């Protein structure tokens, strides 16, 4: 099968929340209790991901703790985690999850613009849509219906994009002689009216280095035409390929497969380790392709997926075990297929830097 390469190769991304994707991952992390929310563990996994050649790290988040019962875990807010490692990384894209129904849209856009400035153009945004009763109650709201949530999601993405364009690229002049910091004619109100909110604007932060933050959305959200990267699921490569085709038909510029991984290479082997993890807390189906086995077997699967998708986001079951194996056994096996990280996240994805809507022409990424 001929590889699908609109962006010039396969982009490797990894989810770095907590101790791993499996709800019992904390039992295998090797961390002392005092280190759970400390900076060392976060710096370590981010460094491992960047040194391995991953182009993007994502950080899951939600209004509520990520698990409950004996597995209840605390986490630092995803945007804060991404900002913390912004200046310790050089090429790794950083994309926190921020939720549209529980985050004020203006502040969401500002936080992401600030992250893009802090990283010199490596920020992304995983669009979150937490909307259950308990999540909504954290902001004194009630859950939205499906249609209302879809409209809210589209509105928040649209107003964020409008706010990122509210400052033209050359609006900051810093003319000491005249005392002018900016050209007010190049800073614009957005005057956005959504179904549940209005935003006057402009943003308080100058236009991000990428022009537009990279927006990453699950295919199920139905906003492929508003996103830069659409995440697709499927329990086998054929299902993933079909989902990728649907996403492209819906307007997705880039499509990433979602893949859970439990890898051989440690003691016990992958299947036995997963069984032990599940004996503590069962890992429910995620809808993602799940590979339990050898790194070489995963490389074979990924080479097949390269004919359908532009990238893969890995969800290591246990970061302490599976991330090093991805770094040393899997990514090297994909060297001929992988796209090298670029100067900005858009460059890593092979996406152009968008023109500001208030001017006629854009510039390269």
Rounded to the nearest angstrom, the distance between the terminal CA atoms is 30 Å
**What fold name stands as the CATH topology?**
TIM Barrel
User: CATH homologous superfamily - what is it?
Assistant: Luciferase-like domain
Query: Considering DSSP H and I runs of 4 or more, what fraction of the residues is helical?
Result: 25-40%
The coarse silhouette is globular
Radius of gyration: 21 Å
Q: Name the helix and strand elements from N-terminus to C-terminus, one letter apiece.
A: EHEHEHEHHEEEEEEHEHEHEHH
Domain Luciferase-like: 38-276
Keywords: Flavoprotein, FMN, Monooxygenase, Oxidoreductase
Organism: Pseudonocardia sulfidoxydans NBRC 16205
InterPro entries: Diverse_substr_monoxygenases (IPR051260), Luciferase-like_dom (IPR011251), Luciferase-like_sf (IPR036661)
Kindly list the characteristics that best describe this protein.
31% helix; single chain; disordered C terminus; disordered N terminus; two-stranded antiparallel ribbon; alpha/beta; 365 residues; eight-stranded parallel barrel; TIM Barrel
Descriptive report:
- By secondary structure, the chain is an alpha/beta fold.
- It has a single domain (11-349), classed as Luciferase-like domain (TIM Barrel, Alpha-Beta Barrel).
- It has 10 helices and 13 strands.
- It has helices at 39-52, 78-86, 105-119, 133-137, 146-164, 237-249, 270-280, 295-305, 319-330, 345-349; strands at residues 11-15, 56-59, 93-99, 124-128, 172-175, 180-182, 192-193, 198-199, 214-218, 229-232, 254-263, 289-293, 311-316.
- The strands form 3 sheets. Strands 1-2-3-4-9-10-11-13 form an 8-stranded parallel barrel, surrounded by 7 helices. A two-stranded antiparallel sheet has the order 5-6.
- Helix 1 (39-52) runs parallel beside helix 9, helix 2 runs parallel beside helix 3 (105-119) and helix 3 crosses helix 5 (146-164).
- The model is unreliable at 1-7 and 361-365 (pLDDT under 50).
- This is FMNH2-utilizing oxygenase.
- One of its GO terms (molecular function) is monooxygenase activity.
- Pfam families: Bac_luciferase.
- Residues 38-276 form the Luciferase-like domain.
- Keywords: Flavoprotein, FMN, Monooxygenase, Oxidoreductase.
